[in-house]
Design brief:
This protein is mainly α and about 170 residues long. About 50% of the residues lie in helices and about 10% in strands.
Length: about 170
Amino acid sequence: MIHITQMSEPVGLDWLAALEGGYIRDAYPDGNVPPVWTIGPGLTVIKGRKVRKGDQLSEDGCREAYKWEVAEREAKVDSLTRDDLTQAQFDCLVSFAFNIGLGAYACSTCRTLIEMGAPTSQIVDQMRRWNKKTVDGRLVLDRGLVNRRNAEAILWSTGRYVLQDGREFKA
């Protein structure tokens, strides 16, 4: 079996970028309360600096910053996770960690179940639990996160890079 250490290109990277809203070149406030300034495909930090209102990137700058941020997640997911994953499963976990944070991924029941070799149904059930965002200090169900977790569950269990709207990414 091949030891996978990077997301597949372009399908994995493009699928993750689509989940994050695409290559948005102007900083925007995310949907959290209070908002977090974000740019590109879900980037809140670019090369160590927090994104601020008014920040802009060229399309190439967006893609470069995104690949740099994804590489950090790839390395951490690789170091925390067993080596017998498929490419799609690795890509799924990079997406999951990109969204919930590396610290949350490291401590998650989902990761523990993966390491134990648990059945797919238990793993995707744990992924789907991460479907809330903080609004005024309270966790509330977020439809976008429900959709994202469903897309990740499909990728984990079938190897298909699909979005909730039916778009499918193929190599």
